[in-house]
Amino acid sequence: MELLLSLAIGILVASGVWLLLRPRTYQVIMGLSLLSYAVNLFIFATGRLYIGGPPVVEKGIEINPANYADPVPQALVLTAIVISFATTALFLVVLLASRGITGTDHVDGREPER
Amino acid sequence: MIPSPTHLLIAPILIPLAAGALLLMFDERERRLKDTITTVACAAMLAVSILLLGRAHTGGPGGDGSVYVYLLGNWPSPIAINLVLDRLSSMMLVLTAVLALPSFIFATARWEKAGTHFHSLFLFMLMGLNGAFLTGDLFNLFVFFEVLLAASYGLVLHGSGAARVKWGMHYIVINLAASLLFLIGVAMIYSETGTLNMAQLAVLMGQLDTQSRPIAEAGAAILGVAFMIKAGIWPLNFWLPNAYAAAVAPVAAIFAIMTKVGIYVLLRLTLLFFGIKAGGSNGFGAELLFLAGLLTILFGAIGVLASQALGRLAGYSVLISSGTLLAAVGFAEDGVTAGALFYLVTSTISISALFMLIELIERGQDPAANVLAVTLEAFGEDSEIEEINENEVGLAIPETLVVLGISFGICTLLLAGLPPLSAFLAKFAMLSAMFDPEASGIRSSAWWLASFLIFSGFASLIAMSRAGIRSFWAPLEGVVPRVLLVEIAPVAALLLVTVGLTVAAGPAMRFMDATAGDLHKPNAYIDAVLNAVQAAPGPRGGIR
Fold first, then answer.
1. What residue ranges are annotated as transmembrane (chain A) (predicted)?
2. May I ask the CATH architecture of the domain A2-51+68-102?
3. Which of B169, B170, B175 is the best residue to mutate to test the A interface, defined by the most A CB atoms within 10 Å of its own CB?
């Protein structure tokens, strides 16, 4: 499972970085989205991988922490997802504004001279 | 223990949040009401921050300062997400409020009309800034950073137009990428230490074994890169001068503190994580910060010399200020840090004033005129231009130009660090601490920092004098800008603050010394956070 997860994160980051460096705004936004997925998975993995371990303990009983998943990274991931979702939406608006004002989807607002 | 009302500590976050949310209810046409509410909110923020500053500086037993911790939700420390008020954070709160009020008043004259929701965005950004300064928790720092960035994305686009959209988009992409780095760094640190509480991290960083230490250090380094992007450190700063120059004047004026948030976090975290408690990691990355600071100063100095437009000149001045501060952080010595903090306050205020002033000077001027002027200088004067200038001699200089000229002169003195104003005192404090005869010896890095400080001041002086001569003594067109009182008053107020700092340099420097002492020996901070007492239940079972 560790191998699978690290491969997934690695491929997402690699594609994300490549897309981020492309000159078209749509590619950039896709790159940022892929990168944020990778980062979310990464944060999730910092709590170590558990199968079938609940993150919330029950009240009043003896607990062995080894049987429970770490809840903090899961909370962090939730926050990070919401924030990256919001910023992506915001960036989409800017992208459309730029397309409308400059008439091109190049990140510099004009086509490169050939 | 904690003087009442304890809850005052959260007011700098709640005031702009409540006011900003309230203003969303009103239509853009009700401008006067919105202006009033925002002004009142900014003034309240200023009052509260000054109160908190006084409390952090002289509160506590013996009147020698104290650290106040606010446990959100009243969970026990260190599990609770906390807000921490010490001298440094209270100083940053006051600085934010001092910039916010004039910037907003400046905006009321015309700029707030250039787009929608200016008031709310402005207030939400203030909320993010105050939260970032107050929080004692790494992840909450991220959240507040996102709040202030999201609002700043809106503000940088305020007024719209091709240039703003283009540079604003670059600004947004860079900062989104930086936020991802921020998250990676936080996650790596969490994976090795199991906490996000800064004070607890400071203790745990020193106790890591050889296996986890490199991962935590790598996490901190990635975090550092994220903050260096936000602070505008070379080579991560090519977006900054353009974005700041493209933003409308009052927005650029409040953005002057945005880079300082990055510096603030770097200062606080390096001294907490890699300070005296760090064990094997002591001083991690300090040389790199120092070097990056020097290179940023160099880049900024070349930038101010090469700038043809005033807006970009101010943008590069932001870089010089960031670089100087970062180099001082990397230098890691009490006295230098104290001088750097004083420099932080004066340079932020003066750059903020400059951004507003530039807009007034350039009003009514053709933006291309300045470009033309510098190009003329490079290729030799044109005789035709000389002739026009001679015709201007007979005209008396109108009052507006006198006021603008004097303000510009004060800005020049401040940016170049010339006596008698506070920027000189700040630089002098840094230099005298570097070459302290009572210290064990002068480090070779001191010579580097000193020469870069003086060189950057000289470069600013040349650039500002040239710009000043072009704008006031030899204008290509004789257009006198029409300046309203509400526009020049904020600039004057900010410049008066620096004059005040010059006059009250003694108390100010004592405060900075105490702040630097706290930062370099963070025991009080760590103890206060880790031993924070939960609020006792009130008589009716609630929280007092």
1. 6-21, 28-51, 75-97
2. Orthogonal Bundle (1.10)
3. B169
